[in-house]
Every structure is written in structure tokens, then in C-alpha cells.
Design brief:
Length: 82
């Protein structure tokens, strides 16, 4: 069923039925929880997780790349492994 069809069906409902649909929609989460959030919720329910600390911004994001002379570092690594 398309969104257009759903809207048409809702418009055909009585005002009381539309209010019930609105109430139901208001109870639904606007964004589905991530798999990580779901796993954390299950761990909390099981008593295995007390708190979750916010992730720190990666230090990699704050670093500035250093230019090197010569061939790319990835080539050197491949050569040394081979």
C-alpha cells in the first residue's frame, strides 16, 4: 500500500477513528533505534549494563595529515609484507 493510499484511507475515517490513528502514530518512535541502542537496552534489562558513556570524538578527526616524500606509505607496507 502506498503512502497516498494510506492517506486516502485515513481521510475516509470518522474523526474519532482519525484521532485513534493520530494517537497510535504519536506512540511510534520517529527514528528506529540503532542495533547498538537495541543491544544496550537488552543488556540494561538483563542487569549487565549500568550506564553508557558518550563516545569521544575520534582523535583521528583532529589530526592533520602529514605529507611524505617518495612513494605512498601503502606501497611500502605491501612491499614489506610481500
Amino acid at each position: 500500500m502506498s503512502v497516498k493510499e494510506v492517506l486516502e484511507a485515513v481521510q475516509a475515517l470518522s474523526p474519532e477513528e482519525r484521532a485513534q490513528v493520530r494517537d497510535l502514530l504519536d506512540t511510534l518512535p520517529s527514528v528506529p533505534p540503532s542495533p547498538e541502542a537495541e543491544a544496550q537496552a537488552r543488556l540494561r534489562e538483563a542487569g549487565l549494563l549500568v550506564e553508557t558513556k558518550p563516545r569521544e570524538v575520534s582523535t583521528r578527526a583532529r589530526r592533520t595529515p602529514v605529507e611524505i616524500k617518495g612513494k605512498p606509505l601503502s606501497e611500502t607496507i605491501v612491499e614489506e609484507r610481500g
